Amino acid sequence: MKWRLLFGLLAMIAMVPLFSQTEDDRITIRSFYDEALTSRQSYHWLKDLCAIGPRLSGSESSLQAIHWVKGVMDTCGFDRVYLQPTLVPHWERGNPEKAILYDSKGGEYPLNVLAIGGSVATPPGGITAEIIEVPSLMAIDDIPREEIEGKIVFFNPPFDQTNIGTGASYGSNVGTRAQGAVKASQKGAIASVIRSVSSGDDDAPHTGTGHYEADVDSIPAAALGVRSADIVQHVLKLDPHAKMHLEMSCKWFEDAPSFNVIAELRGSEYPDEIIAMGGHMDSWDVGEGAHDDGAGCMHALGALKLLVDQGVTPKRTIRAVMFINEENGTRGGEEYADQAVKLGEKHLVAIESDAGGYSPRGFGITADEEQRLKLESWLDYFPKNTISYMSKGGGGVDIGPLHRADGTPMIGLSVDGQKMFDLHHSANDVFSAVHPRELELGTASMATLVYLLSQYGL
Amino acid sequence: MKWRLLFGLLAMIAMVPLFSQTEDDRITIRSFYDEALTSRQSYHWLKDLCAIGPRLSGSESSLQAIHWVKGVMDTCGFDRVYLQPTLVPHWERGNPEKAILYDSKGGEYPLNVLAIGGSVATPPGGITAEIIEVPSLMAIDDIPREEIEGKIVFFNPPFDQTNIGTGASYGSNVGTRAQGAVKASQKGAIASVIRSVSSGDDDAPHTGTGHYEADVDSIPAAALGVRSADIVQHVLKLDPHAKMHLEMSCKWFEDAPSFNVIAELRGSEYPDEIIAMGGHMDSWDVGEGAHDDGAGCMHALGALKLLVDQGVTPKRTIRAVMFINEENGTRGGEEYADQAVKLGEKHLVAIESDAGGYSPRGFGITADEEQRLKLESWLDYFPKNTISYMSKGGGGVDIGPLHRADGTPMIGLSVDGQKMFDLHHSANDVFSAVHPRELELGTASMATLVYLLSQYGL
Predict the structure, then answer these.
(1) Residue B254 annotated among the catalytic residues of the structure
(2) What is the percent of chain A where pLDDT is above 90?
(3) pLDDT tens track for B193-211
(4) In chain A, how many H helices and how many E strands?
(5) CA gap B57, A382 in Å, rounded
(6) CATH class of the domain comprising A94-249
(7) Which of B39, B186, B334, B411 could serve as a FRET partner for B104 with CA atoms 20 to 30 Å apart?
(8) Which residue of B has its CA nearest to A382?
(9) pLDDT at B272 over 80
(10) Gap from A432 CA to chain B (nearest CA, Å)
(11) Confidence tier at A21 by pLDDT (50, 70, 90)
(12) Domain A30-91+254-456 in CATH: superfamily?
């Protein structure tokens, strides 16, 4: 039996470090959650960030926010903090927009409206025209040009409430916002207004980016609050000749100088293997960009700070990247990828949080199946009711260019985002809509993921 | 090879119904989510329920709510709807409470306060006394009687923010609310006030049930808002002789008649096997009892209605039970168990939703491990980002008596409750704090669970 005893002893010796490593990791990870939930550092930073105001690319406040976040990073004890310059589009909304529905008996219905980002203005004094309601982007293809010409097209698709993940419903309708003006203009319309792409039932309009095409006349594009859209829909049934007045003074400017902001903890063993995690600093120009994507930025920055505060020396290099210009250009994400290629940087993985500051639920992975399974084997490190899956597919707009440039695997944070599209791109995306514990659970979950990646690779 | 062909054919024939059954189940389950997310029936009912006002056991409004919910059930096409009578405790808060802190330089600090449920009143005109701060319930044991006698004891334990599940932190501190007055009285105090058991940082006091013992003088018991508690704490450091004035006029009455309300769908194959799911109709007497536990009631009622609306004929009997008196007596839960034993009813399982109307995350199970594993094997039926675990341990206060009486397995719904103890038992537990999609995902998840239980047993 002696050989068995020997074997047993050898096995025990072999197991001890494994077991200890796991226990050490658990203690470290528990400290991330404890620290995040008590210090609430990400939440306090988010409050300061939101106080600066909305941060549309090219705006004065976006630059203030960039310099504010760099100033914060400079105090955190990171190994390196730097700005990465890039030019960004610069569009301004101008005066508050005006939209009024007039019926033919003299009834006036003021409507809540926002220009879609990038829209041209109306002529001074606005435009007034009859309206044609179109139930979806594609439905316009079946309507004869003579029924559209000279009118305002009103794209009015309902939001599909049946998807558990409201992002899918957003995706189904966002085409009206992005492409509506082009499709309407091609049939001779003089403006395009849409029902806001919103899961909510208030009347706050939701903006977002729209597109034009070089060979199609650019016509004004706007989004109505969903209650306003309901009013237009109902009144048109009573009075098909009701007219809409629309007035917008938005304007394009020259591309403006801006920056990604990057903080780095250098890896002790594999400094050339980079783990990049981030969110985007820019927001739309209404509300405060609290969930979209101040939360994601503070997730990444807060996670890096947790590593420092808990005395972690990562084996691989970890970056928190605050990308600029996710909303209307992705210039920050492209610049980051360009520089990575130019400098020959090797990214192990890129991670994005851009789904809101709600309770974390899982990560979505775009990587080899073997890599995904490795991530899945770590699920047990995440406390109950935080991260419960590592599912196939996921990433982010800002890390997409790097993925496309060199195949860097992508990971996106999934959250309990039932409320996200109630307030996304609207005046209601403000700091007070963020819950401290929900935000901090995201921060600690990001810290846990990058910690494990830095120790064990992918 | 012919026998192989035959075997293959037989296997295919055997598999077809299995496969179809699974697919049928998936289609049925998908219809629960689609219907709940579009009709929002539970949410609309919850709005009506909350409009009645708070529903403390024995109150007029609790009876209004009971008759309202029976009226709703009567319209739903259930097989049976009935009231189950029981007596309940009847305590009233009386006039709004008053608490003021006075320092010795003439400074006055008005404090936000609520009597703890069941408290005796102060003498008319109130009491005024010096305060002794005690950091936890147990800490009072080490303080000499002479330091406490004639004073107001101020139990001030902080809320532990490090638990991911805030229910555990609530559990750690709730003893000050339940037992504080007895412990303080035993050492000669004239009143007991506590820091509200709250995860929030506003100043709304949180009430809840308190206890007295027959052989210990009953002294007034109250809860301060956490900001008010901070003020008392800070001022006591500056001025240990600061005094508190406390005025409460609450009163006990005779036990009052009340009811559980029960709706039933009769099983087609095993009518004698009962699946009971429920929440509690009573609430505290501030706010609207929206999350606690209007949400749980509407989860159960909404789930039963989904089964009817989707044309499900359950094989086993399913009940939606609106229990009375969870908050301060459990008389409803006890009566339900007593009647079940008396009538010889056989319960397959009892399910409770009493954690709030937030996004569902899992079920907690108190049953044999074999039964839990059977439930776990159904996880794949629940859509992503709804139910992701069937963990050990769970149940509910109202179904506890049945479990203790005859061993009926218990299941409790777990939700993403990061916000729950911000508002629990306070004036902020109102309908507007409930999100329609989050509530309805709970309803559909309850429907899914009872559907599978009714078809496949436990």
Answers:
(1) no
(2) 95
(3) 999 999 999 999 999 999 9
(4) 11, 16
(5) 41
(6) alpha beta
(7) B186
(8) B164
(9) yes
(10) 13
(11) confident
(12) Zn peptidases (3.40.630.10)
